[in-house]
């Protein structure tokens, strides 16, 4: 067994063009999901799984990310003076949530390149990668199970979701074999965004990975692939064929996932999460029913 995995890497260098003009001056990761920016949900998920050492891979105009997880003395003093203890607690919570570090990606060369930028911080340890567009409901277990499987098997583990076969062109798709666990499969091959007729399965990779450090050596040698970018999927394909690095396994997730990278799914995520909250749900749910009935 290796030492406990403690580090999380969150790529956050994308431009968020699908949300323009809202993201013209604000990082897409800071778009609010109810009353918290999307990126905070991701950091909270990492921390809940025991990963308090967080590295964000950022780019230009991402200063708001650093500011959000930093202290704001003037705001704290104002809230304290007003006696607004609830909001003061929320502000302090985000600034003390994790030990957050930042490094810039520089050239926008894809997810694989963004992960490679974490090499100096991660070193020779296994680590987790969490994509900010995918929010996993805090009531459902995913990352902690992935960490458990990665440590037990000494292998890389990715999160898989069974999707409609007509949507394979939107995801990395895995070829799989069964294992001794119902929710764990061994990955024998990966292909990035295949057409439905060429897809080896309907098991799609979603934005959670636990990777062995050997992935960095592979990424160093990975040529640009689909879209002219260095694809993490291509590196995982190499690891899947390399038993010396432990291979690659998939944890099949059957819980609640919210895709905040798509405008319609972003709106759905806000509605679903707000409906599940004790402070908003009781009023929102009946209003939604009446609103839909009147349309």
Automatic annotation (TrEMBL):
GO molecular function: UTP:glucose-1-phosphate uridylyltransferase activity
SUPFAM superfamilies, sorted: Nucleotide-diphospho-sugar transferases
InterPro entries per UniProt: GalU_uridylyltTrfase_bac/arc, NTP_transferase_dom, Nucleotide-diphossugar_trans
Record EC number: 2.7.7.9
Lineage top rank: taxon: Bacteria
Annotated keywords: Nucleotidyltransferase, Transferase
Pfam families documented for this protein: NTP_transferase
Tagged with keyword Protein transport: no
Enzyme class of the recorded protein, top EC level: transferase
Reactions performed catalytically: alpha-D-glucose 1-phosphate + UTP + H(+) = UDP-alpha-D-glucose + diphosphate
UniProt domain Nucleotidyl transferase: residue ranges: 7-273
Function of the molecule: May play a role in stationary phase survival.
Family: Belongs to the UDPGP type 2 family.
Name the record gives this protein: UTP--glucose-1-phosphate uridylyltransferase
Organism: Lysobacter korlensis
Encoding gene, per UniProt annotation: galU
């Amino acid at each position: 067994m290796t030492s406990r995995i403690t580090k999380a890497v969150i790529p956050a260098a994308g431009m968020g063009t699908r949300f323009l003009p809202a993201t013209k001056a604000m990082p897409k990761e800071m778009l609010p999901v109810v009353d918290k920016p999307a990126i905070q949900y991701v950091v909270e998920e990492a921390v809940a799984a025991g990963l308090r050492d967080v590295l964000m891979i950022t780019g230009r105009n991402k200063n708001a990310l650093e500011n959000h997880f930093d202290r704001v003395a003037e705001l704290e003093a104002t809230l304290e003076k007003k006696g607004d203890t609830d909001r003061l607690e929320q502000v302090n919570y985000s600034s003390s949530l994790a030990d957050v570090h930042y490094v810039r990606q520089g050239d926008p060369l894809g997810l694989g390149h963004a992960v490679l930028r974490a090499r100096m911080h991660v070193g020779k340890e296994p680590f987790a990668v969490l994509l900010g567009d995918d929010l996993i409901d805090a009531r459902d277990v995913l990352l902690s199970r992935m960490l458990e499987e990665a440590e037990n098997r000494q292998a890389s583990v990715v999160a898989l979701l069974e999707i409609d076969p007509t949507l394979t062109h939107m995801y990395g798709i895995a070829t799989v074999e069964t294992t001794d666990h119902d929710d764990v499969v061994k990955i024998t091959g990966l292909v990035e965004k295949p057409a439905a007729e060429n897809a080896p399965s309907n098991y799609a990779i979603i934005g959670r990975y636990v990777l062995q450090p050997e992935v960095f050596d592979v990424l160093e040698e990975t040529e640009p692939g689909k879209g002219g970018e260095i694809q993490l999927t291509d590196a995982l394909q190499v690891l899947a064929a390399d038993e010396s690095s432990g291979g690659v396994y998939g944890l099949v997730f059957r819980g609640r996932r919210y895709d905040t990278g798509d405008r319609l799914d972003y709106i759905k995520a806000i509605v679903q999460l707000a409906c599940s909250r004790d402070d908003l749900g009781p009023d929102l749910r009946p209003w939604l029913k009446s609103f839909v009935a009147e349309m």
